[in-house]
Design brief:
The chain is built from four helices and six strands; from the N terminus they run βαββαββααβ. It has about 160 residues and is an alpha+beta fold. It starts with a strand and ends in a 14-residue tail after the last strand.
Length: about 160
Amino acid sequence: MSQIVFYSRNLVKLTGGSMRDMVRDILASCSRYDRASGMTGALVFNEDFFLQAMEGEASTISEQLWNVAADSRHSGMVLVSAAPVQQRSLGGWTVGYAGRSEALNALYLQYGSTAKFDPTEMSAAAIIALLRAFTELDASHFVQRSGQPGIVAMKPVAR
């Protein structure tokens, strides 16, 4: 069993409707692949970055990583961590939007040096901890897990 964690620059220009559609589409794709491959993981993103962890058999992760690397929605993939693990720390798939709110800003500050989502300013351990923290957030933070019906829209927050 292995785990790989990486981030990349987001090239998608998001709007309210397309962001909701993007989360739904990514989660559907992850969920289908999860069932077929036995992989688990988490993906958190905002207008600037994608941050993702995948867990499963090393060969399966390697194959999926090549697919992700070829995806035109992002560029500049940076490998944060790749290591064997004794057990999974991410069940199913979680996809979350790293927006701005008091709760999320506090989460970013807990794991990074600023109150914004920026994996370039975080250690590998902090990035993994942040991904795990996102898997525990509720849907009011625009987080969706595989197997859950629908997506609950994020509460509007002034920027």
